Amino acid sequence: METIRNWLLPLLLVAAQGILLWPGLGPDGTPGGAALAGVLCALAVETVALGRRRTAPVRVLAATLAAVVLGGLAWQDGYVGLGPLIALYSVAVRCPLPVTVRALAATVGVEWLLAAVQEGLRASLLSLMLISLGTYLLCAGLGEARRQWLAGRLSATRRLAGAEHARRLAGDQERRRLARELHDVSAHHLTSVVVTVDAARRLGDSRPALAAEALSFAERTGTETLTALQRLVGLLRDADRPDHRPMSGRIEELVAGFGRLGRPVTARLPDDLAGPSAEAIQGIVREALTNALRYAPGAAAEVLVRRVNGLLELTVENAPPRSAPQGAGGLGAGRGVTGMRERAAAAGGELTAGPTPEGGWRVRATLPDGAEPQRQLEDAWRRDVLREQRFADPALASAAWVLPLSCALAVAEDWSPGARHAALPALLAVTALLAVHALPLVWRRRAPWSVFLAVMATAWLGPSAVVALRLPSQVAEFLLCGTLVEVLAVYAVAAYGQGPGRTWPAPAVSALGAACAVTAVACADGSVGGEPAGPADFVLLPFFLCALLAPLFAAVWGAGLLVRRRRLRALAYDEFAWASSMWQAGRAAEAERQRLAASLRDAVLERTRALVGAARRGDLDEVAGAARGALGAMREMLHGLGHGEDEGPAGRLSPSPTAADLETLCRTLCSAGRDVRLRGLAEAARDLPPSVQVSVYRIVEAALGAGDLGPARVTLRRRRGTLRITVTGVRLAVAGPVAERLRVQVAAGEGRILCEPAGTLRVSLPAGAVPAPVQEVSPSPYA
């Protein structure tokens, strides 16, 4: 099917050119052998080149321009070179904006040089140059609009792929997040209780007041621990909402809390830290100071946060320990540095930790500056995007101005030199009026109704100028060519206006306004067609013109509504699929929280409540035992979280799926009540590279999971180094966001895909080693 699409249009052009060259149908005169050979050679080059316009558009444009030059010089009247139009459109669709602009300039330059050689310095040269400029501007503008649509679809596909990826990993990510939070609770709260209580028990004889302080600290910290654990198990439903308030104060309170434990701690940080990076800084500081409390008792520590080149640099450094650590040895979970690295990576940064030359310990982290004004970043992104989007509309507006002007100049070629010289001021006035009339189209997508009203208002500048400037009728009639602007304005209202049900007045108003404006221009000098205009002409002529233009504007309005409906339907599919993936991801995370909640209630919460109760009763020994018991239970839970259902014994994710897992997938669907049959797996999947096996599984999984409920068939065949996958009975997978996501996955594996409307999916993948297509989320084309 893709081959037919590539070659159908070039072959149609060849057939049309052949009909034009047929004796009696083509231009007058018999070409010589050299001229005919040149035309045939140009046709061959153009046809072969256009067949590759989807893969090498710039080279195809260069080849078609060479064919136009060859054919035009060989036989000017016998060769119609439409290849550059198609090639330039392909360049605009598939290449960035700077490439399109350069290609447009090169194409117009070649056409102008060819026209100058063929026509010479005559009056017709200017009209030919304007016609070619307007035509190529129109092709480039339409191609750029198509590229924007495809880029939007690709971005939506990547967004959906990211949502699907998040759905598959939601449980694992939530388990890791909870493990980090539990480690923070165990490392900071409970370890601090153990250290403080043990110190009070050792120094009870020399410092009796320390026991009361330790009990008060244990009660307060135990209450904070209960609150933190309740938040983790989902009892506080808004725990995961982002907090954009500055967190500098909370970090300073955290540092001051460690200072109250008897160690000198200093902190220097900005006062507007906010966002995920600030939350990561808080967790890293808490972990680093707790490690210093555990392993370097009594040593001074320093916390420093600086802004450097748009980044946040965090440094937590402590001096060597004054004495050997006591009381908390062996109570750590063994993943403090790992947890800090994970927290920094989750915020988009990196972390290093290691000893200092003096014998202390230093933790350094580099994180993105979350407090940087988001509006500046959004404005920069918007400027980049709008810079790309602003080409299509100005190109169409320029074409709507240049094409009518070229028609006017073409007609003026038949005038005598004296008439042209006398009408020159009037032609300049008409040129300016047509430009003003077409100028609002530049904003047709951003403000369609305002553009429509502006176009309707500027349409009356023509009649006003005819009366005020007394333009001759032979020049004033060129203003009628500006009706193309009204057509584009009606389309913009239908395709981009607010509320499709409220856009129906646009074609009616346009037809009536254009008819009245044309009548006013035609009758401005008191005559119609050289005859004196009577009262009936001012009534019948607008009625006749309105009836003539109304079907045209209605058809354009209907086309705009169809395009709008298609776009909104695609967006609705995307939003539904994205919301469904996010909902399933939320349910998976919620299930993981509920599973953890049961373990926390039994293993940790009861011991923590006992700790708080013992602190209130003033039993220091019981507080120490309860804190150690809760800390030990927490440590066991941390190890349990490292061995979830989807992870291996070392806490790592299980291996990626392979083609052999398709049997399990099909059996699962069959057990759910759907008839799914798999054929050719054993022979086709033999000795496949791991990347191809992952790609095969993901493609079949996405196709079968599109939502169809009927019977499906999956067939795998391997021939000459190519693996062919055929999936039938998947109507919902051959269109919409699922099909777009499959195209991205297949393209990542350097394969080809064919989606048949009947519900059949055909995929071809190279069976050799190719880059792994498991990365389903690619960078944005505008990044």
UniProtKB/TrEMBL annotation:
Keywords: ATP-binding, Kinase, Membrane, Nucleotide-binding, Phosphoprotein, Transferase, Transmembrane, Transmembrane helix, Two-component regulatory system. Residues 393-567 form the DUF7134 domain. It catalyses: ATP + protein L-histidine = ADP + protein N-phospho-L-histidine. The chain crosses the membrane at residues 7-25, 31-51, 58-75, 123-143, 391-411, 423-443, 450-469, 475-496, 508-528, 540-563. Its EC number is 2.7.13.3. It is an enzyme of class 2 (transferase). One of its GO terms (molecular function) is phosphorelay sensor kinase activity. InterPro entries: DUF7134, HATPase_C_sf, HATPase_dom, Sensor_HK_TwoCompSys, Sig_transdc_His_kin_sub3_dim/P. Residues 279-369 form the Histidine kinase/HSP90-like ATPase domain. Residues 174-239 form the Signal transduction histidine kinase subgroup 3 dimerisation and phosphoacceptor domain. One of its GO terms (cellular component) is membrane. This is histidine kinase. It comes from Streptomyces actinomycinicus.
